[in-house]
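PROTEIN FOLDING TASK:
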Amino acid sequence: MRRLVYARRQAGSCIREAFGRGVLRMGRSLKKGPFCDEYLIKKVEALNAAGEKRVIKTWSRRSTILPIFVGHTFAVHDGRKHVPVYITEDMVGHKLGEFAPTRTFKGHAGDEKASRSR
């Protein structure tokens, strides 16, 4: 619990900026702060302390991207495989799952009449 509170304090104004971008939707209360699984915060802090850049494999699509994640690569599970997602500043405030699509779009069916007449 302490780590989560620390992350909330450390993220501070960056989180407020990310959530207060003028998005017209009902979001999470600023009083509560962003949700992020604690083990992700621990892993990123350990990598930052060691100065390493390694792919972090995660199943947590629900976690909010925090400013301390910028520059790291997460392998986010899409239900079948892990999709590599490189975190940039524009992604702060979004969820990890938004960048790993779960469904593959194979295109719309062609028009049968057009194919028969040719």
Notes: Helices lie at 2-19, 38-50, 112-117. The first helix runs from residue 2 to 19. The radius of gyration is 19 Å.
